[in-house]
Design a protein that fits this description.
Layout (H helix, E strand, L loop, with lengths): L11 H22 L10 E6 L9 H6 L3 E6 L4 E5 L3 E8 L2 E8 L3 E6 L4 E4 L39 E4 L7
Parallel strand pairs: 7-8
Antiparallel strand pairs: 1-2, 1-6, 3-4, 4-5, 6-7
């Protein structure tokens, strides 16, 4: 007998990542059903790989964020559409409107700081590990809350951030 855990023939990590990304779709779908208004103080930080397949963003944003970008969905967004593969939304960046199409597979983090909830995902595009980046700073709330970004990684304060990492044993 051996103490080594055998490699699984079932892609558990992919299955779990897909299920957790479906949470993002369900949350955004609920927003659409409610008339595209976020309830209470809820707002979302969504981080995604700009070079992932299916991502469609204006060229100036792709140049500014060649790897990863974080958008804020709070007060100023429009035309939110959600389907089984991803979502599209209108946001403004420095008062310039833009439409973004983002597949769920491109998302690396989803945070709702109003309730201290977050999900962090493995990049699904090969060799696209997260790099440090500046936030997109789209035109969010006029209440000045935009600069207060929560950490998305594991937390010692009991927050609801979920990180799933299935590392292979050697």
């Amino acid at each position: 007998m051996t103490d080594e855990t055998p490699d699984s023939l079932i892609p558990y990590d992919d299955i779990v990542q897909e299920a957790l990304r479906a949470v993002v779709g369900r949350v955004l779908g609920e927003i659409v059903k409610s008339g595209s208004e976020l309830p209470g103080t809820h707002h979302f930080y969504i981080t995604f790989k700009t070079g992932a397949p299916g991502v469609s963003i204006p060229q100036n944003l792709r140049e500014r964020f060649p790897d990863e970008m974080t958008i804020v969905m709070q007060n100023k967004f429009w035309d939110l559409e959600v389907d089984d593969e991803g979502f599209s939304v209108g946001l403004s960046f420095n008062a310039v409107p833009a439409k973004l199409d983002i597949p769920y597979a491109a998302i690396t983090a989803f945070v709702d700081p109003a309730v201290d909830f977050g999900l962090q995902f493995q990049a699904t595009v090969a060799d696209m590990a997260p790099e440090s980046h500046e936030d997109a700073e789209n035109d969010a709330s006029t209440s000045g809350e935009q600069g207060d970004h929560p950490a998305v990684t594991g937390s010692e304060d009991g927050s609801n951030v979920v990180t799933v990492d299935f590392g292979k044993k050697s």
